[in-house]
Amino acid sequence: MKRAHSEIGERALIIMAKAPRAGHVKTRLATGLPAEAVVDLYRSMLEDTLDLAGSVSTDIVAIVCPTSDVDDLSSWLPAIEIVGQQGEGLAAGLASALRIFINRGYRRVVALDGDSPQLLPETLDRAFQLLDAADVVMGPTIDGGYYLVGSKSARAELFDAQGMGTGSALDSLTASAHGLGLQVALTETSYDVDEIEDLVRLARELRLFPRRALRTAAWLAHRPELGGC
């Protein structure tokens, strides 16, 4: 899908991802799905997320990942710039995404997870728009986390590694932002896919609106136990 472009250097949309390997991605789903099925699902969700990103007006779409995953992702997705993060863990990855692309000259950088393929393009566009007035934008998830974070400045201290992946991740990030004197704005509340219950919810949504994430919807259609058909 061809992307529309805004002013050069204005918007960077970064997807946080990992190489699709068994035991490396979406490990909490392995309690209810075979390991290879989890990998296939992850591939579908990430490809749909890239399609979603490509439908939003940006100047660049790129992937930030652990350095050990760069080669695998580059081989799989040669048309997308793959950037290795500095440091370990998601907090370091998010800090890297903001720092690298803001330092390149992009004025607004939004980092998106790779497991919310059902989001609407309008949600991502609104995240960039909110940065007109706010310093930081966050996309809350129903479990207390967030599916995106965006900023106009690179502040590594914004991210607390201890709070990542917990039910208080959004509160922790908000507190950090306020502690730095930053103004925060929120997009709509949504969800990402961490647990089997999240996947069942996604299956219900994509059964009604399959075009939001065509590959994921097709994958779920072969999993009737998840409500995909």
What low-confidence regions span 5 or more consecutive residues with pLDDT below 50?
1-7
Number of alpha- plus pi-helical segments: 7
Whole-number total of structural domains: 1
CATH architecture call: Alpha-Beta Complex
Q: What is the alpha-carbon Rg in Å? A: 17 Å
Give, in spatial order, the strands making up the sheet with the most strands. Answer: 3-2-1-4-6-5-7
Order of helices and strands: EHEHEHEHEEHEHH
- The CATH homologous superfamily name equals Spore Coat Polysaccharide Biosynthesis Protein SpsA, Chain A
Provide the fold topology.
Layout: E1 11-16, H1 35-54, E2 60-65, H2 70-76, E3 81-84, H3 89-103, E4 108-113, H4 121-130, E5 136-140, E6 146-151, H5 169-179, E7 184-186, H6 196-208, H7 214-221
Parallel strand pairs: 1-2, 1-4, 2-3, 5-7
Antiparallel strand pairs: 4-6, 5-6
Helix pairs in contact: 1-7
